[in-house]
């Protein structure tokens, strides 16, 4: 199992500026839509520079995990601005240092594209989420259409991963989550403006653990 995460200090340093336009338009809206379902004890994985922190309301506490020290420094700086209690924890999604069924809500925004082991991460999200809990997502995923777009998603991975902070353009994240025992209850797919087509589609989703043991 891979659990040591490569640091991306340059990408972390430019992240907020790079995304500023998107945050003002579609990305901020997508975050707000997903986070409107957050409640109780919240776990956010790969919280980055903390772009979600200011958006949490009416939750008991947010545990914001971030394994990359370059992001984590920026994340900690945002904590005092949050409206809810926030604890920052150094942990990869593949190995979460929390007991089973300890969170009401798990949040991943633009993180499952970057983890090293998506299946292991999905299994960990399933493990720490309560049976009646919700997984909230804003992610870009592999296209359902085959052909040129999917081929371009696969082909762009080595370049993209290098220059876009470890992000992979070809992750079938919803299928990975289904394999880990999640059922998508609400799903909004969209192709945002001014975004390279290899990242299409984006999804805002709410998923629940399926009954019984994780798949
Ligand atoms: C594109 S950034 C997204 C940051 C933040 N979630 C957001 O919405 O702005 C990808 C994030 O995934 C984190 N990441 C990379 N590998 C990870 C892993 N194995 N486990 C958890 N987070 C990871 C990175 O450190 C980074 O913070």
TrEMBL record:
Residues 43-136 form the Methyltransferase type domain. Keywords: Methyltransferase, Transferase. It comes from the Bacteria. Pfam families: Methyltransf_11. The keyword Kinase does not apply. One of its GO terms (biological process) is methylation. GO terms for molecular function: S-adenosylmethionine-dependent methyltransferase activity. Coiled coil: none annotated. PANTHER family: METHYLTRANSFERASE LIKE 7A (PTHR45036:SF1), METHYLTRANSFERASE LIKE 7B (PTHR45036). This is Methyltransferase family protein.
């Amino acid at each position: 199992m891979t659990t040591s995460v490569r640091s991306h200090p340059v990408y972390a340093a430019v992240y907020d500026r790079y995304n500023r336009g998107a945050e003002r338009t579609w990305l901020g809206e997508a975050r707000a839509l997903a986070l409107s379902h957050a409640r109780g004890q919240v776990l956010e994985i790969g919280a980055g520079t903390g772009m979600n922190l200011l958006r949490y309301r009416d939750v008991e506490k947010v545990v914001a995990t971030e394994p990359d020290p370059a992001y984590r420094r920026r994340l900690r700086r945002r904590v005092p601005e949050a409206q809810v209690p926030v604890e920052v924890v150094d942990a990869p999604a593949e190995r979460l240092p929390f007991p089973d069924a300890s969170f009401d809500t798990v949040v991943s925004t633009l993180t499952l594209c970057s983890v090293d082991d998506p299946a292991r991460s999905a299994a960990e999200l399933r493990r720490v989420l309560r049976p009646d809990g919700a997984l909230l997502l804003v992610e870009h995923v592999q296209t359902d259409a085959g052909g040129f777009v999917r081929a371009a998603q696969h082909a762009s991975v080595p370049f993209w991963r290098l220059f876009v902070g470890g992000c992979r353009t070809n992750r079938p994240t919803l299928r990975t989550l289904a394999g880990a025992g999640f059922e998508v209850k609400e799903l909004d797919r969209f192709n945002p403006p001014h975004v390279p087509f290899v990242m299409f589609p984006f999804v805002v989703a709410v998923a629940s653990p399926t009954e019984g043991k994780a798949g």
